[in-house]
């Protein structure tokens, strides 16, 4: 396993935010974490990208406890798109994307030609090349989100941790991002709200409720009407996409508003 969470627990103010979470993500797999608001998805991801120190348990990168690695060392392997990235400075898009190289660059060494091309390629891939000279402070929510994904890519990580990566993205950019993730070969751990996108992109899905893991498995194993009713309190009908066979959830709005 490239990434493993082992009995990961986080407590704050005497309350367990996540409790003894176990999760394995294989090399090149896309693992989704779903669950209601406040169920602990971001908390678990924060432990993986080391914004938060677990109270107990561990995150293992290829078997090594992350806490045994220097921050800079783990940042060469794990890049994150977070929900906390609001405090940007008045940098251009190109500068922000270039910051993704920070774990690889000693001192003030300027980026070399390969790294500059890497940045340009990531900006093209995320459809933000035309914004290269713009201040990030002037971007729309979706543009900023795509810039932050480009920054994570130039980090050349093995593992991408994505907290709500499709936040703010229009439908075209959501699909572009998810099909990129499917083809990029990176190991991905993503918190997702959109269960249909999770079904379409994830190899495995972990379901959290109140800080505890309540199910893991393939989308077909996990995304059942029973589980979704139980965890989210919502009625769904499950159908197969007529062409791709992918699992699609149709929300029963009448059922949801009854009772
Ligand atoms: N530093 C903290 N101190 C106290 N409680 C916290 C702290 N950080 C998070 N929490 C609480 O922990 C719980 C889990 O939060 P978390 O952000 O992990 O949930 P989430 O599943 O990502 O939710 P959402 O879907 O709303 O993004 C929430 O109830 C949140 O209020």
Question: Briefly, what is this?
Answer:
The chain is α/β, with parallel strands linked by helices.
Count the strands? 12
Using only C-alpha atoms, the radius of gyration works out to: 19 Å
Structural class: alpha/beta
- Helix-strand pattern, N to C? EEEHEEHEHHHEHEHEEHHEEH
What compounds sit in this structure?
adenosine-5'-triphosphate
Alpha plus pi helix count? 10
Instruction: Give the amount of beta strand, in percent.
Output: 25-35%
CATH top level of the largest domain is: Alpha Beta
Average pLDDT figure: 92
Return the CATH topology of the largest domain. Rossmann fold
User: What number of domains?
Assistant: 2
Low-confidence stretches: none
Which architecture name of the largest domain does CATH use? 3-Layer(aba) Sandwich
Main sheet record = 6 strands, mixed
Name the overall outline: globular
Instruction: Give the strand line-up of the largest sheet.
Output: 6-7-8-3-9-10
Organism: Nonomuraea antimicrobica
Keywords: ATP-binding, Nucleotide-binding
Domain ABC transporter: 3-235
GO molecular function: ATP binding
Structural features:
alpha/beta; Rossmann fold; 4-stranded antiparallel sheet; binds adenosine-5'-triphosphate
